[in-house]
Write a structure and sequence with these properties.
With 69 residues, the chain is an all-alpha fold. It contains two helices and no strands.
Length: 69
């Protein structure tokens, strides 16, 4: 599911596959960061249009002109 964090084994396998052999303190940080990045990418994918481009949100604001007295 989108909210599920990847397992330690998954992150470790991805790190090894990409030649990222890290000592224990850093591998724990990598696992935590990967979970956040994975969640962010999942949210981005949900916001894409049918053509695959990100939707742009535009909220028009009225222009207020200052009038000199």
């Amino acid at each position: 599911m989108a909210g599920d964090l990847p397992s330690r084994e998954t992150v470790a396998a991805l790190a090894v596959a990409n030649d990222m052999l890290l000592p224990e303190p850093y591998s724990g940080e990598l696992e935590e960061a990967y979970g956040h990045v994975n969640a962010m990418l999942t949210r981005f994918r949900r916001c894409q249009t049918a053509s695959g481009e990100m939707e742009q949100v535009f909220v028009p604001m009225p222009v207020v002109k200052e009038v000199d007295p």
